[in-house]
Design a protein that fits this description.
The chain has 412 residues and is an all-alpha fold. The chain contains 16 helices and no strands.
């Protein structure tokens, strides 16, 4: 019974932690601009994060090794250091975007000034991560992030054209007025893929498996969680694209502020929908902020061989504890400069996909190495999918910056 409960909670946590401010913004704007045409990217990205996290969780359970321990082992200190710097810079930017998004939500609800709310958010995170145990952090924010399901309910009540919806899962180019719009479509495709396959999710997931003391017998638990939880999370991302297509697009509304998404829930479910949507976004953004700050601390500690983990008292993992505190402070300083959190989201998403192949490749090499993994090494299907997604994310990484420059960040 305990194992069944653990699986159930793991699935719900994976689902509730799937959407953060970057994915919400890009999914809404993708739907607003291109209707259902990018739904296939959500399916592609969801399968991709399943493949990546399943490998990372399997390695963590079978070998007790997290991502950046493997990176240093496989590519050495110098090569791994470049990946570490890039990955942690992205974590800081993503954390900054989440903190900014939370401050905007609080401002919408309270009318208080934005900058003091940023400082209040910083205090909130420092207190929560300091006092909460790992499983409470994981489950409270993951489970309450499930309030985002209100967007799925809103979509159902909008009664979209389900035939057009189904066609959106077939890869293809949209009908557009100019070739330049094809570049914008490509930028949104790459960015949406990146927002679903954010590397920090894998860092946190693999480290979390070790925090939860996974053993080789938990390999199947890992598989069940990713094969059920992440697809259910993908349904949330799909619902956001539909909201963009059905609600924002016809009204020429750009999803620039988190409150824009709540308008769609409110239009179908009234005040209750508005409140539930805002609460869901708060817990989803807060969970992502905590995951990115802790992921940066995990990465640094694992790479340098420091004691790490929330299961250790702060005095036994002092450098790990100091690391996540510093990340929260740096992230808050970024948005205190006055930079638009949505602009930070854009940069974080683009640079995430640039870093992604550098962390994916060492994991793939270990997961398929039978000398290391033994019976838990990749099977034929995992190997095919593993190499397929390595090619996909490498192409996306090459295209991301040129597309961002050519389209002025998707503006055309």
């Amino acid at each position: 019974m305990k194992k069944v409960l653990e699986i159930f909670l793991g699935i719900l946590t994976a689902m509730g932690g799937f959407v953060e401010v970057g994915e919400l913004t890009f999914a809404l704007n993708a739907g607003s601009r291109f209707g259902y045409d990018l739904l296939w990217i959500v399916a592609l990205g969801t399968l991709g994060i399943i493949v990546f996290c399943e490998m990372a969780g399997r390695v963590a359970a079978a070998r007790g090794q997290p991502v950046f321990n493997l990176i240093r082992e496989r590519v050495g200190f110098s090569g791994g250091l470049i990946t570490l710097i890039g990955a942690n810079a992205v974590c800081v930017m993503t954390c900054a975007a989440e903190i900014g998004g939370i401050a905007l939500l609080w401002q919408l609800l309270s009318g208080w000034p934005y900058r003091p709310l940023l400082l209040l958010a910083l205090v909130f995170f420092l207190v929560v991560v300091w006092f909460f145990k790992f499983n409470w952090i994981e489950r409270v924010f993951g489970l309450l992030g499930l309030l985002m399901v209100v967007f799925c309910v809103a979509v159902y009540m909008m009664e979209p054209d389900w035939n057009e919806f189904a066609k959106g899962f077939i890869p293809g180019l949209p009908v557009v007025e100019s070739s330049r719009e094809i570049l914008v479509y490509a930028f949104f495709a790459v960015s949406l893929l990146s927002s679903i396959m954010l590397p920090y999710e894998t860092y946190f997931y693999a480290s979390g498996g070790i925090e939860d003391h996974w053993k080789p017998q938990d390999v199947n638990l890992n598989r069940v969680i990713v094969l059920i939880g992440f697809p259910l999370g993908g349904v949330l991302a799909v619902s956001l694209i539909v909201i963009g297509a059905e609600f924002l697009g016809p009204r020429d509304i750009e999803a620039h502020l988190p409150g824009t998404a709540a308008m769609a829930a409110s239009s179908q479910l009234g005040k209750v929908g508005l409140i539930v949507a805002l609460l869901g976004m708060f817990f989803a953004f807060a969970g992502a902020a905590i995951e990115t700050a802790m992921s940066a601390a995990y990465n640094l500690s694992q790479f340098l061989g420091w004691p790490w983990g929330k299961f250790r008292p702060p005095q036994q993992a002092s450098r790990f504890t100091l690391s996540w505190v510093v990340v929260f402070v740096l992230a808050t300083l970024v948005v205190l400069t006055g930079i638009d959190p949505i602009k930070v989201v854009e940069y974080a998403i683009v640079f995430s996909v640039v870093v992604l192949p550098l962390t994916y490749f060492p994991m793939l090499m270990v997961a398929q190495d039978r000398n290391v993994m033994g019976e838990y090494a990749n099977g034929p299907l995992a190997s095919v999918l593993g190499w397929f997604y390595f090619i996909v994310i490498t192409l996306a990484a090459i295209a991301a910056l040129p597309l961002m420059i050519a389209t002025h960040g998707g503006q055309g």
